[in-house]
Amino acid sequence: MAPADRRRARTDAVAVRRVPVLLPYPFPGPFDYAVPPGMVPEPGDLVLAPLNRRESVGVVWDGAPDAALPESRLKPLTAILDAPRMRADLRRLVDWIAAYTLAAPGEVLAMALRLNALRPESAPIGWQIADTIPSEHRLTEARRRVLAALAEGPRGGAELARAAGVSSGVIRGMADAGLIVAITLPPRAPFARPDPDHPGPVLSVEQQGAAGALRQAVAARAFSVTLLDGVTGSGKTEVYLEAVAACLRAGRQALVLLPEIALSSQWLERFERRFAVAPAVWHSDLSSRTRRITWRAVAAGTAPVVVGARSALFLPFPDLGLVVIDEEHETAFKQEEGVVYHARDMAVVRARLCGAPAVLVSATPSLETMANVEAGRYRRLHLPSRHAGAALPTVRLIDLRDAPPERGRFLSPPLIAAIQAAFARGEQAMLFLNRRGYAPLTLCRHCGHRMQCPNCTAWLVEHRVRKQLQCHHCGHAEPIPPACPVCGAEASLTPVGPGVERITEEAAATFPAARRLVMASDTIPGPHAAAEAAHAIAAREIDLIIGTQIVAKGWHFPHLTVVGVVDADLGLAGGDLRAAERTVQLLHQVAGRAGRAEAPGEVLLQTFDPAHPVMQALLAGDLARFLAQEAAQRRPGHWPPYGRLAALIVSAESAEAADGTARDLARAAPRGEGIAVLGPAPAPLAILRGRHRRRLLLKTRRDIAVQPLLRSWLEKVQPRGATRIDVDVDPMSFL
Ligand code: ADP
Ligand code: ZN
Fold it and tell me: Strands (DSSP E) along 130-252, which ranges?
């Protein structure tokens, strides 16, 4: 075409309007679509768009269309859906998370859309009395009761039948006779308004100070981050509920993120005590109907408070006035599958995008958060003592070399004595071991063979109750074989080491009269079981609780005074950057379950290494000094939080393919001042679900952003065959 013709073509045809649409798939960005005449899409509109001969839901995105596609190939949007628009702050959150984690924006959008209730709840049908009842009509007793029930106002069919004590046939008959007419009931608000003025506890002076500061942060209607830290039982929850109250009084919505919502029955009860009604709850196990109702209520602003798991971050709050992240140090906030993101950090981002305050809460704040406090980015409110004068528990170290358990057993004499003493005083005790099942390893006494997962570089864990060997990484399970699969020796397979099942067995033999309760993810499968367990403990129907990390959560058991940690060294093995920090956090949380009311608590840690800084920190209860030591160790090497870290995990079906791609990555690794690449090395879980895994670690100074480095690095390397490269920015797990 000659230049003149081109110009004419452009002026002749009415230019097709195009819009960028983000689709919930891992494409690099939004695609352009043509806008059919008469359609006026706005950013955030949910649309139906053709994609590969099918149609996909997408969201009209912001910014200029990219215009790369010629008009002739542009496909028109099919329809704008009748659904609430995706808000600008959520769209920015999607962009932000994608940019930070290097996930495709569409993958992040998919997380936000999964929550979305596209199908509106159909308006409920009800009945009311017809305007004119034929007076000559003689009413049966049943029909009279129906009219009486409707005299107070319209009702839904099922409710009406119940109230009048009639069958649905009677109601239908009355409708046919023109006595009652069907109407659409106004939608009932699914969540009652929590009452901020419902009388709460009288706060101590310290608590009042902290609550006042949080109330101010809410009143400021501006982004800020506050760390609320304080010893276990200091009343942090009561304090931040005052911030929620302030948010409610301001007529805005509040979001509270909890690391494990299934274990939060006590939290929910407390919320109800404070505000007279339950909050909206959000997690992945909700029925699709509840999900739809909740999502709509959040979008309509009629769910004033939402307590949820990390996915609640993507709910469409129109007026978010407060974000609380309770137990901010918990690694459960990190999502390890799919889009790998840290819900705590992204919650802070969401708060910033909404201009709302964020409150991070913990008795054992993460080093990351403490570094932000020290740098002046976060404000800190500190509650130094337990509520109502309850003392912090005393901690004792039991050196297992000096006081070993009996052969083949795991509870040392001093620990047994302390538990017996608690029972004698009519108090409760708890045994903590962060390991499910009966034994972490099963070994043939005859040939030394170790039972290993066929899909993973991992030992199989014996679950004696289920008569199974299980892989805790891939879910593989097999019956416990009667003979060694290698040498054939019968009855030679021996459990090595303890899990909670084995400790339970030992406890049954040691404390036969004690009423025991096991709290592990396989014995406490859901919120209902957790609530029942908590009630049984509070009602003193239990003497001894034996549990995994579930028991470390924020439980408040007033009669529990002795906590025994079976293997305090457990989390310290392995080269994890945060092994010491996490062990201190976990054991401090477990210890914090003891002595929360009048009776003083005692915590006993069984260890082979009492001189270890972690044991000494727990003994002294001096977390601040421990954090300072950790900081001093990490700072010079620019380890997080004093530097940045990103992991690349290469995985393939063959070791050669994984090695090949890992080597290509190593050759193309970014270089420069303040940049280091470690690896490739086989991952500790060198084979997972049958895939061979290699790891590389990019470490930079804090002032260097890892994302641009990662992007240009990955552009240079073509993964071999079916090899995958997963990116984990700010890795928490190094397996
Ligand atoms: P934390 O969150 O710091 O572990 P909690 O908020 O769970 O502490 O408080 C510990 C216990 O003390 C809870 O049972 C709580 O209801 C109670 N408590 C805290 N502060 C008060 C108060 N001012 N008045 C009455 N009870 C309180
Ligand atoms: Zn496995």
Answer: 155-156, 180-184, 224-230
